[in-house]
Amino acid sequence: MFIQTEATPNPATLKFLPGRTVLPEGTLDLRSGEDASRSPLAERLFAIDGVAAVFFGYDFITVTKTGGEWQHLKPAILGAIMEHFMSGAPLLREDAGVDMDDADEFFAEEDAATVETIKELLDTRVRPAVAGDGGDITFRGYRDGVVYLAMKGSCSGCPSSTATLKHGIQNLLQHFLPDVREVEAV
């Protein structure tokens, strides 16, 4: 098994590509050892000293470190990923689910058409690019011209996330939807 790695815009996060499907649908953002109990692979990764977060996407895993150097952490992470996939163990325990994109959304009923357009733009133009960097951005709400988005994976805590939100996503949404005034992270 050959696992590729890619740098992400977040220097504390590295993207691992095992060359196979990781999570067939949805995403899973695990930020603590308690969260890791949902996945045998996440438990292996959190057992490595210096691992702060794990994110599963369709065909990638991103790992965020608390400190240390990647050249010291990377071999242990690669080993844990390889051991997991070679063992044939499932990624998730039976009672664990993926993060649903529509959980806890809020918007007024009269804004439903605007929200549908926002979601379509996010799904077709934003999320594929962000997934390429090892993260995900999901819609959380819309109120008074403000779009609220959740940043996951390498996007969470990334130094360039504000620029992505304000200059990239906000400009895109304002181009297609003049009612959008601002984009905020939640």
Automatic annotation (TrEMBL):
Gene3D superfamilies, sorted: Fe-S cluster assembly (FSCA), Scaffold protein Nfu/NifU, N-terminal domain
One term of GO molecular function: iron ion binding
SUPFAM superfamilies registered for this protein in UniProt: Fe-S cluster assembly (FSCA) domain-like, Hypothetical protein SAV1430
InterPro entries hit by this protein: FSCA_dom_sf, Nfu/NifU_N, Nfu/NifU_N_sf, NFU1-like, NIF_FeS_clus_asmbl_NifU_C
Residue intervals of the Scaffold protein Nfu/NifU N-terminal domain: 3-88
One GO biological process term: iron-sulfur cluster assembly
A UniProt-annotated Pfam family: NifU
Matches recorded under PANTHER family: IRON-SULFUR CLUSTER SCAFFOLD PROTEIN NFU-RELATED (PTHR11178), NFU1 IRON-SULFUR CLUSTER SCAFFOLD HOMOLOG, MITOCHONDRIAL (PTHR11178:SF1)
Family, similarity comment: Belongs to the NifU family.
Protein name (Swiss-Prot/TrEMBL): Fe-S cluster biogenesis protein NfuA
Phylogenetic placement of the source organism: Bacteria, Pseudomonadati, Pseudomonadota, Alphaproteobacteria, Hyphomicrobiales
